[in-house]
């Protein structure tokens, strides 16, 4: 068996730490998410390990609950964009012709509108709740995944084994999911890690602008927003969610890199 | 003795080469791929290195540049060139040595030229880089070499870009590039392998003349004994990184001492009996014209051929003759512009999508590159099992039993069930592709250059297997190939294609006996024969032939 490289181990450790704290938030958090338990911006102490926030809530508890929301929304939106984007792209490539042309130009059209502005407009119209947030984020990201998956699939689609499957009379579904998808997986997995991080950042941006997660619920971007005034007074509360975002981004990418190198060196990888 | 020492160009002693295998997180291992090889080469002589893929012939050739490709390292022995052990050279010394005293001609000239620079700049680059002579002098040398290599319009040839000349011309331009710095030694690494036979003969003759006129020494690396017999003075036969036999060309091809060499010399002497015409036509192609969408010219022009049940029809031609396009028309990937394809008396629908499952099943295809014809993420069981399941609805244990049966038929056995394509050798991969075609119980199989990517001995094994299977399964083959030796071995009837037309068609005995039309004559006389002096005879024969018209 191959040993897991050190960088991947670090990545795995930090990522699973975040995941576990998100899953067991109810047991780990010392206080409720909206519970006012102390003074405004208290420094770190035995009672409040990370201090308190702008209205006296425990920052650690808010970070844990915030992480739960952030990771959940980002994961669901990524899953949505990947399953939809990849399926659409592979079907477009296999079917080809006008279907591919129409879909690809439509995607180009959507991509020409800046994502953040698009999201702001849509979110200010639709009711702000978790479902609409996930849908908007996921659907907007479909365009990026589509472009990548299509580029990868076009190369695979001209391989002789795909032609052999066509000559056999296979349906589109078999060709897409059995012949092309397994061979397109490794670049897609690497992209998955990256896109998950973009989702975290996107959600944080939206919350910071006030259109993401609505108070009193919290996510990391929202916590930065609530505490940003404190920076003027030398209070570091706003930096803690920023550090959490950075740590999550780096650790997930360390894992994605490892998965990428592992899947490419698998039997049948492009270079044997 | 002293005089011989003076004339010695290369002296390789106990050469050992190993590949570095790095496993992340574990220690680096060395796997020896050349196990102690000795040879010498006199000035102005040519040594042929011959062997199958994996024999280490290219690796040994490159060692004369003190170079290991990829993760390959020279781990032992000495390489003396002109009285210096080049393995003791530092990087700076090597840099002035490579490309100046020893140069290299690679297999694929098309991939080795920079497409955005004129040929002249690339041919003279080494001379100028090493400051061997002035630009005028270098260009003068290049023009002389272009003339010597028989390139058209030698004065202006260098002004063209790589994509403006043909593959054969590009290979000659690369030879000019190698000879331009006036080296002591040139390494030719399969310089004609990627060319058509009729082009190969010209390039081969040009290379041979250039070697003789410039008096340069050469290592000529190839897998084709007939080719190397034309150009080299001595031959070294290699296998698995060991020297098998080393002697003069005359001795190797007429009096081989080792069994392996004997097998290489006699390969393809096997010829199948031609089956008599039966009149039982399985496939008939009637007046087919076809072109690719968006292109103005027809690739196929009025093709009429027939294939009888249980017989083999070989479609022969050079690249661009339309033979693979014919396969695409028959399989329905490219609907014909005119004409039709009859299968068992009934017309096949032009487009693949409208064909019935039975039509699809009865017409199978085997590809040239077995590597890309199998999904690298599927096991052999899935690859062969899918048509079994798809066409016959077999599942589970039944399906598995049928796959094992097929694996036995292709002489592989059930150990292969759980393997992935990457774990098989080239010949085994092609066998699996044959099994996949057979799994459909077809009445006809299109074989598109199925042996051209394989080593001669392996290819012979595949041809024998195909013939045996024809006996058992009564299947017909449409055999697309550029290799006339394969045609002789397997065909019952032959169609010779040239620029999209069938120029000669009929039973094998008829097609391969005179009187010939011009193109068939050219094609037949271009196939290298295992005979010294064949090249000169063939060239003069062609001059007579072309003078006669």
In short:
In chain A, 71% of the residues lie in helices and 0% in strands. Chain A is mostly helical and 272 residues long.
Task: Tell me the number of structural domains of chain A.
Answer: 1
Q: Per the principal axes of the C-alpha atoms, what is the gross shape of chain B?
A: globular
Indicate the CATH architecture of chain A.
Answer: Orthogonal Bundle
Biggest interface, chains and residue tallies = A-B, 23 and 31 residues
Distance between the termini of chain B: 54 Å
Q: What is the CA-atom radius of gyration of chain B, in angstroms? A: 26 Å
Return the structural class of chain A: mainly alpha
Biggest sheet features of chain B: 6 strands, mixed
Please report the total strand number of chain B as a whole number. 20
Helical residues, percent of chain B: 25-40%
* Subunit organisation of the chains: heterodimer
Distance between the termini of chain A: 18 Å
Structural category of chain B is alpha/beta
Strand content of chain B: 15-25%
Number of helices in the DSSP assignment of chain B: 24
Q: Which homologous superfamily in CATH is the superfamily of chain A?
A: MetI-like
Total helical elements of chain A: 10
CA radius of gyration of chain A: 22 Å
| Uncertain residue segments of chain A | 266-272
What average pLDDT do the residues of chain B reach? Answer: 86
